[in-house]
Amino acid sequence: MTRAISLHDVSKTYGTKGGRVVDRLSLDIAPGEFLVLLGPSGCGKSTVLRMIAGLEEITEGQLLLDGEYANDLPPAGRDMAMVFQNFALYPNMTSRDNIGFPLRIESPGADHGARVGATARMLGIEDLLDRFPGQLSGGERQRVAMGRAIARHPSAFLMDEPLSNLDAKLRNHLRAEIAKLTRQLKVTTVYVTHDQSEAMSLGDRVAVLRGGVLQQVDTPRAVYGLPRNVFVAAFVGTPRINLLRGLVRAPLDGAMTVSLGKQFLRLPEPLTMDHQLLRVQQGREVIVGLRSEAVRIAKPSAARPGEVPLTGLVEHLEFQGHEVLVHFDTGSRPAVVPDLEAPRPARRPARRRRRDGGTALEWLRERAGALRAGSSVALLDRAAEAEAPGGPDAPAAPEPRLPGDLVVRTTPDLRLRHGMQVPLLVDLAHLFVFDQHGERICPAPDHLPDLEE
Q1: Which of these, 190, 216, 281, 370, is most buried using a 10 Å CB contact count?
Q2: Which pLDDT score is estimated for 174?
Q3: Does a structural domain hold residue 395?
Q4: String of b and e for 408-425 (b: at least 16 CB within 10 Å)?
C-alpha cells in the first residue's frame, strides 16, 4: 500500500519571535511518486520531512494523508519509515536485530525471520546479519538502516540525506540501488538532499527550496531546462550557468539586441514570441543566462539557424577527462546578484522615517511612480550599498576577479591554449533572460502578466 501526501500552506516557526523556517509551502505528492526536496543547507527541507513524519509540529497549514487531515496524527499512526543521515542504528544489536526491531514493536512474539531474510536478500546483506554496527563500513550500515525501513512495508519512505556521509563512489552505487528499490516497491518516497546530481538522477519530480519558500517543482528536465528564476538556474546544473549583465535595445527601425558590454547578441528576425516579449525591457538591465552547452566553438560561417556569433579570449582550461571546460573572456559583465542567489534572501533593513518628514507610504508611492516611468532596479542591492562605508555615493567595491566571464563545454580533442582568440556561436534557443528581480522573462513564463495591471 502506498499513499498520497499533500501539504497546504504549511509553515514552521520556532519560538514566538523566530523567523519562518518553512513559509506557506504547498505541495502534492502522488501515490508511488519519488519526490526530491532539493536546496542548500538551512533552506528548511529537513524540517518539511520531519513535519510529514510527525517529528515536528506544524505551526500553520494542513497536512493531508490520502486526503485526510493528519496534523495531529502521531508518528506511529502515519505508517511511514524514515532513513536518517547518521544511520541511527542500535550499537548493541546485530544487523538482524536492527532490521527486525520495528517489526517486534508492531507484533511482539511473532516470527519475523522470513521478512528480515527477504529484506536482506533484496539489499545484498545476507552475510552481514550477525554483525554489529561497529563491524560494518559506512555503506553497509546505510544498507542496514534502509533494510530496517523496508522490512516494515510502510506506505511512504522519508529519506533525510541518507548518502551524504559516504564517499563519492559508494554514493553513486547506492543511489542506483535506491532508484531500483523504490521502482520495485512502488512506495511513495520523499528524499531530501543538497546534491543536485542525486536530485536529477533519482526524482520523478524535484522541489527546489530557498529560505523555506518553494521556488519550483517540476520534472528534473524541466527544472534544468526552464528554471523559474535566477536562484534555480544557478543552483541546478554543473558547471554553473553563466550569468551576465545585459541591456535590451529595441529600436523601432533596427534589429533587437542584448548588449553584453563590449559585444552583443543580435536577435534574428522575425522575432520569436519569447524574444518579442523582451521589448518591454527596452533600455533596462537584465540578467542573461547561458548554459555551457548553449555556446560552441565554431566560425560564423558554420552558424546554424538561431545561432549568433561572439568571440572569446581563452583564460583558463579545466580538463575533465571526457570533456574540457573553457573559461573565456568576452568582455561581458558577470551578473553579481548575491541577494538573488543566496541560500536565504537577505533581510531588508526597516525603513526609517525620511528626513523631510515624508512617510514610508509616500516613499513607496514615489518609487512606484518611478518604476511606471521606466526606471530600473539595480542588480546590486541598494539597501546593502547604503549600509556600506561612505554611503550609497561611495565608489563601489571592485568585483572579485574570476577566470573569464563565459564557461563553454567542449571535447578534449580540440587544441586550445591560454590567450587564444576563439570564435563562438551562441544558440539563442537556449538563451535565458531574467528581470532584475531574478524572475525568468525569456523563455516566456507560464503565466503572462496583464500589461494593463
Answers
A1: 190
A2: 82
A3: no
A4: bbbeeeeeeeeeeebbbb
324 and 444 both lie in a single domain: yes
Is 335 within 8 Å of 380 (Cβ atoms)? no
Taking the CA atoms of residue 209, residue 210, residue 216 and residue 222 in that order, the dihedral angle to the nearest 10 degrees is -90
- Residue 58's contacts (CB-CB under 8 Å, 6 or more residues apart) are 10, 11, 12, 51, 71
| 422 and 297 within one domain | yes
**Cβ 109 vs Cβ 101: under 8 Å:** no
How many domains are there within the chain?
A: 2
What was the pLDDT predicted at 250?
A: 86
Whether the full predicted model's pTM is greater than 0.90, yes or no, is no
Q: Which domain holds residue 273?
A: 229-346+402-453
Has residue 374 got a pLDDT over 60?
no
Angle at 56 between CA 96 and CA 98, to 5 degrees: 5
Residues 222 and 285 in one domain: no
Q: Is the pLDDT of residue 294 over 80?
A: yes
Q: What confidence score (pLDDT) does residue 447 get?
A: 55
In this prediction, residue 332 carries a pLDDT of: 92
For residues 83 and 330, give the distance between their C-alpha atoms in angstroms, rounded to a whole number.
47
